[in-house]
Amino acid sequence: MKEPTRRPSPKLKKKARIVLERLAELYPDAHCELNHENPFQLLVATILSAQTTDAKVNEVTPALFARFPDAFNLAQSEPEEIQPYIQSIGLYKNKSKHIVATARLLVEKYGGEVPREREALETLPGVGRKTANVVLSTAFGLPALAVDTHVLRVSHRIGLTTADDPLKVEKDLQALFPMSEWGIVHHRLIWHGRRMCSARAPQCAICPIREVCDFAKEQNDARCS
Ligand code: SF4
């Protein structure tokens, strides 16, 4: 994979370096919070996680994976058989169709295995760029940086990007962080968004990033004016 060609300013690079260091100190053990034991389970759990929380997904996947442990089992089922296992999460009817159709494609085209190529992953039903990035980086350790709602919000607030389009945000972040860190940066930004920089109540007063964060500076300026 080629490094992106965008060239951020030295000031922005320095900010990114500080963010990287502080997040590493704050969340040394950051990891994917979707419970899984193999790439297939991660793929299914990530499809299920659209517009719901990882905690909700983790409640349903133990029984789901016990009954359908691999792509072969899932491919032989019908979506209606899946629904009782996942009906407590949002969009469960569509998601049941997606995971069965995905399992069938995995069996037909990839011998029941999850492919390691982005292009192949993105042809699977229910799999977009974000899900493909999660699987590539978390399951296979490949350089990919998934942008979800937490990554988007935290990156905006800090001032790492001004883009709204997730693909542009992904490219901006890739240009700021070393390729070897893309996967862990994704997890650390998510952890920060969940634990300290929530949508409704960011805890700027105790945040170790506040000195380089645009949002915190704006809040401070507003208080002082
Ligand atoms: S200072 Fe506030 S807005 Fe900035 S990253 Fe920390 S919690 Fe989020």
From TrEMBL:
One matching Pfam family is HhH-GPD
Keywords of this protein's UniProt record, alphabetized?
4Fe-4S, DNA damage, DNA repair, DNA-binding, Endonuclease, Glycosidase, Hydrolase, Iron, Iron-sulfur, Lyase, Metal-binding, Nuclease
Could you tell me what the cofactor note in this record states? Binds 1 [4Fe-4S] cluster.
Give the EC class as a word.
Answer: lyase
Q: Which residues form the HhH-GPD domain?
A: 48-195
Q: Which SUPFAM superfamilies match?
A: DNA-glycosylase (SSF48150)
Q: What does the record list as GO biological process?
A: base-excision repair, AP site formation
State its Enzyme Commission number(s). Answer: 4.2.99.18
| PANTHER family, sorted | A/G-SPECIFIC ADENINE GLYCOSYLASE/ENDONUCLEASE III, ENDONUCLEASE III
Family stated for the protein in its record: Belongs to the Nth/MutY family.
- Name-wise, this protein is Endonuclease III
Q: Source species, please?
A: Candidatus Carbonibacillus altaicus
